[in-house]
Amino acid sequence: MVKSDEAERRPMGERGRTRLTGRIVLVLLTFYALAMIAPDLLRIARPLASFGLTSNADGLIYDVQSPFAAEEDSPAWRAGVRRGDRLDLRAMRCVPVDTNLCASALALWGGVNYVMPGSKATLILAATSDRPARQAPLVAEQRSHSRAFNLILPAQQVAGILFVLGAAWLVWTRPGGMTWGFFAYSILFNPGQAFQFYAWLWQWPSALLAQDVASCFLQAAGYTGLLLFALRAPVDLAEGSWRRVERALPALAILFLLVALASLGSLFGYRAEPAMRASALVGFAVSVAAVYILLGRRKDLAPTTMIAPLARRRIAGVVCRAVRNSPRAFTRHAFSRSSAETSSIWPQTPEPAL
Q: Taking the model in full, what pTM does it have?
């Protein structure tokens, strides 16, 4: 009898430990997600600085003004950098990591170059037909904000914080594949911005490189989580033929991760613009697939179940929110680290707002 009681208690104890472990992981990831976006509120009082240029993952410099009002205000322009110049990726590669050249490459990776005021970078420009190879030392300068920016940024960051906390609360109260998938998506793809977080990390190239690698894993997890959420919402169950799609998610996650990691190639001396473009296109494909899955599952819910009518109404609401919110969340993340192609599709604002 004692052995029987112990056997009955053991699974319950194991479930309790699993639940506790899950909650600890949830709390740590929630703090991590909030640590990325909450510091951006400081930008209202102290704007970040910029080197005043943007390059793609092949090292091609295609803008020497943003985020400044005129080219003459850009530190890069004043240092002699011009549109059409190309970075010598091999000379600036992150081998070793803790160097000013690596920090300079990290500041430009994906098109984002917001750093702390007074930060210094050194660009090594490859020789062209009319200009020799040369170095361009830069000192980042601040750009003042508009009143509209000072009003929009707090609302945007608060929305991002509430989005992450809401996703975390769903996992806390109803742990499962559906809620964990949505939470994984919320870590990186939320309304908030993380420029201040990355500007702090830029002072330690090893930490920033580690964060960039982590963001590739988070991106893959977010895309996979969104698809898992679409397959299981709102009752945390994939039915019928959708189960085969769910079984394919691990393979898709690996594919998403490999594409994202390949976009880091420019930091190690390789041209990676195709990978950067592919990473952006994957995000759009995932958003479209998620909406398609939600619409398809709404039709396939078993009509004999009592929850079917309610589930259909819930899925309809999810579809509406996904169509409205997914493009904004994805483009805010993907185009904050944009390439030449994506910036031509969606012109960047100096400091993205809502």
A: 0.82
